[in-house]
């Protein structure tokens, strides 16, 4: 991969294409990226169809968990969804917060934002908003969110330390995030690390699990808790685009593990006044 800006451009281009594809096309590729498999594998995505607020037009099968399941969302909450895509998690969150809540989806791909806005308009929701923006510089004022959610997106952000610092900034004191993402245990082969398709496919941009959790801790979060963890198996027909048969066999014998996790963490309560020892 190249510079951070070049990586973002690759992601924008691929996800602009994904926004115009059907759910079945996206589910049969590596996290939706580029149709790199002809077999119908839902590699990462979870089944949303029975959830209140589910809208099939907003479901592009791009997630790797259901962050709203563990997000502790309450009526009237302000929810920020990072990498909101066509609006799938926003609409599920809206079903929980109700009409008194506010949901803001952030996505850096204009085609996705347009698709999400069309979906919200069809549903006649006046408390769901979609903004074009970068997760490394979230277009939200500080201390406004009750809950931040994100689904299989932070692995696509080049500067993850900056992303989690921004999440910390926009959360209210004592508020929290619940994020589903992809992490690694063990090293990817260089052929996968350097493939743009596998970056946009949520694999080669993933961090080691311990490094990911360390970044969250270093951003200032407390009560860090992994709610779910599931191993992901990349099918051979996808791997064969990047690896030889021998290399695939060696990969299977290695200690590499690719996992989807849903992690919860809380921003501490604000200090009272300087020197008060109330924190």
Characterise the protein shown here:
The protein is α/β, with parallel strands linked by helices. The protein has one domain: Vaccinia Virus protein VP39 (Rossmann fold, 3-Layer(aba) Sandwich). 32% of the residues lie in helices and 22% in strands. Strands 1, 2, 3, 4, 5, 6, 7 and 8 form an eight-stranded mixed β-sheet that branches. Helix 1 (4-19) runs parallel beside helix 4 and helix 5 packs across helix 8. The model is unreliable at 28-42 and 272-278 (pLDDT under 50).
CATH class division: Alpha Beta
Give the number of helices.
Answer: 10
Helix content class = 25-40%
Low-pLDDT runs of 5+ residues are 28-42, 272-278
Q: How many domain modules?
A: 1
Could you say what the CATH architecture is? Answer: 3-Layer(aba) Sandwich
CATH homologous superfamily name?
Vaccinia Virus protein VP39
What can be said about the biggest beta sheet?
8 strands, mixed
Instruction: Examine the coordinates and then state which fold CATH places here, giving the name of the CATH topology.
Output: Rossmann fold
Terminal Cα separation, in Å? 43 Å
> What is the count of β-strands?
8
Strand content: 15-25%
Mean pLDDT metric: 86
Looking at the structure, what is the overall shape? globular
Structural class: alpha/beta
Order of helices and strands: HHEHEHEEHEHHEHEHHE
User: What is Rg?
Assistant: 18 Å
């Amino acid at each position: 991969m190249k510079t951070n800006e070049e990586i973002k451009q690759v992601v924008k281009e691929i996800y602009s294409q994904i926004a115009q594809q059907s759910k079945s096309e996206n589910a049969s590729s590596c996290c939706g990226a580029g149709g790199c498999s002809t077999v119908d594998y839902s590699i990462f995505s979870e089944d949303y169809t029975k959830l209140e607020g589910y809208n099939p037009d907003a479901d592009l099968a791009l997630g790797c968990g259901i962050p709203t399941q563990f997000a502790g969302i309450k009526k009237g909450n302000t929810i920020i969804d990072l990498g909101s895509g066509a609006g799938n998690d926003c609409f599920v969150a809206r079903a929980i917060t109700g009409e008194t809540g506010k949901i803001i989806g952030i996505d850096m791909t204009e085609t996705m934002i347009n698709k999400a806005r069309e979906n919200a308009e069809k549903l006649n929701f006046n408390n769901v908003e979609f903004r074009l923006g970068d997760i490394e510089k979230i277009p939200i004022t500080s201390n406004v969110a009750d809950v931040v959610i994100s689904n299989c997106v932070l692995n696509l952000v080049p500067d993850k330390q900056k992303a989690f610092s921004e999440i910390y900034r926009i959360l209210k004191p004592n508020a929290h995030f619940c994020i589903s993402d992809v992490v690694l245990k063990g090293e990817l082969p260089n052929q996968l690390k350097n493939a743009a398709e596998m970056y946009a496919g949520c694999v080669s941009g993933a961090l080691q699990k311990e490094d990911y959790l360390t970044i969250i801790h270093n951003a200032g979060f407390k009560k860090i808790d992994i709610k779910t963890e599931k191993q992901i198996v990349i099918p051979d027909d996808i791997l064969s685009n990047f690896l030889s048969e021998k290399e695939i066999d060696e990969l299977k014998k290695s200690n590499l593990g690719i996992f989807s996790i849903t992690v919860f963490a809380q921003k501490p309560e604000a200090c009272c006044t300087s020197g008060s020892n109330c924190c």
